[in-house]
Amino acid sequence: MMIKKFIFTALIVVIGAIAFLNGRPSRADTVTPFMQLNCIPELGCLQVSAVTLANVGWQEDYRKYGEIYGLYLRNLPENLDPIRVTCGVTEVEVTYGASRAQGICGSAPAAALSFWLNGELILDGVRFHDNCLADSVFLLTYDEGSSLELCSRSVGFRERSAVCSAKFLFELSQELPYKSFTEFRLDDL
User: Which residues, at least 6 apart from 21, have a Cβ–Cβ distance to it below 8 Å?
Assistant: First the structure.
């Protein structure tokens, strides 16, 4: 009886050691921020959205998502270079900062969104992809020749609703660039 317990215990320890040495971290209960880009230059359409996926695991070649699905993974902590994409007459840049160790947002990294139209800076470092702070843009939609729309999360309301604001291109302020969603939204009020 004692020998059976010893063999069973030894077997469990050996299997556990093999799994530990050969396994990767599970990344369970983690969230990974992506920027999703839908670009159709022939139609003059651009849409940029903040997407947070849970438990996606770890991929060595994280940039392949951009090529395949239009998803751009935030750069790793050791490489905080901006993600910059050109689509026809528009250009978008998203810069993710380092993860925050504490605070209301936990470890969510800060991000900034910049947008150029025909080489002119329209949005400069607008808060982007921040799930817990107000005035954070999660969707930008550009329709060539027509409008620019931004949507932001409204933190503080029970339902965390979205607030969107659209402007016809001829309504854009002469005092560009906009530095926040609130500045963009209140410009014409």
Answer: none
E-strand ranges in 118-169 read: 120-127, 136-143, 147-153, 162-168
pTM for the structure as a whole: 0.74
Positive or negative: CA dihedral 180, 127, 66, 54: negative
Tokens of 8: 């069973």
Place of tokens 């396994």: 23
Q: Does the pLDDT value for residue 35 go beyond 70? A: yes
CB 174 within 8 A of CB 155: no
Give strand pairing partners of 72: 35
- How far apart CA 19 and CA 14 sit, in angstroms, is 9
Per mean pLDDT, which of 101-105, 123-127, 184-188 is the most reliable? 123-127
What's the CA gap between 74 and 33, in Å, rounded?
6
Predicted local confidence at residue 103, as pLDDT: 54
- Do the beta carbons of residue 33 and residue 129 sit within 8 Å? yes
Angle made by CA atoms 148, 84, 87, in degrees to the nearest 5: 50
